[in-house]
Specification:
6-stranded mixed beta sheet, alpha/beta, 225 residues
């Protein structure tokens, strides 16, 4: 080993490496958000407000370091991420593990119609019962598992980097609940707004939420969903 090789650890030992940071974002408002329809694995477009929300988040993060970016493979997440990343040379990667809960036969239906046609499953949903499963769709446990797997893949691939992750409301609820070991019956005990910003920092193998559903950048816009 050269002298420089021996000296390098002496100069780098005191240098603190940046933590792994995940900037977790729900997509902007969509047409189905505005209409009050269940939309999991169906496509729906951003509204004009949704685009403005994404632009406000872009401005909020203008001075922030973003080393990598991921989104679910649905257009509302992709379009939101594209707006936030405008002007950056960061490639957007798509991960189906970040998808919203699949609502099966409930897709594109309004809640009042679901309550009429599927009263028992609707009751389970409203009671936050882990047994809730829309016909042909996913359980909360399934979404908690796959979003946590996606999160782990991202963290392993981007140690000591800051990563933008754009996903969906229920998916983010499920991911955070899983990371924080919240019981399945309490998965929905915090709000996830359109273009709300949540920050998760890795401390060793532990995920620590340092910011939760921050919507301060949306001031002056209509109330987020």
């Amino acid at each position: 080993m050269t002298v420089a090789g021996w000296l390098r650890p002496l100069f780098t030992a005191g240098v603190k490496r940046a933590p792994t940071r995940i900037l977790l974002v729900r997509h902007g408002q969509t047409v189905t958000n505005r209409e009050g329809r269940f939309c999991g694995h169906s496509e729906t477009a951003l509204t004009a407000l949704g685009q403005k929300q994404a632009e406000a988040l872009q401005e909020r993060l203008r001075g922030a370091q973003i080393d990598a970016a991921y989104a679910s493979d649905f257009s509302r997440a992709i379009d939101t991420a594209a707006i936030v990343l405008a002007g950056r040379e960061v490639q957007l990667r798509l991960d189906p593990g970040l998808r919203e809960l699949h609502y099966g036969e409930w897709e594109q239906e309004k809640e009042r119609e679901v309550a009429r046609r599927y009263p028992e499953q609707h009751r389970l949903m409203r009671n936050e019962d882990p047994a809730w499963q829309p016909p042909g769709g996913e359980t909360i446990g399934m979404v908690r598992s796959r979003t946590a797997d996606a999160f782990s893949r991202i963290v392993r691939a981007h140690g000591h980097q800051t990563v933008l992750v754009v996903s969906h409301g229920t998916a983010i609820n499920c991911l955070l609940a899983e990371l924080l070991a919240i019981p399945p019956s309490h998965t929905f005990r915090f709000l996830v707004s359109n273009c709300g910003l949540t920050e998760v920092v890795m401390r060793g193998s532990a995920a620590v939420v340092t910011r939760l559903n921050d919507t301060s950048h949306l001031a002056g816009l209509e109330s987020p969903v």
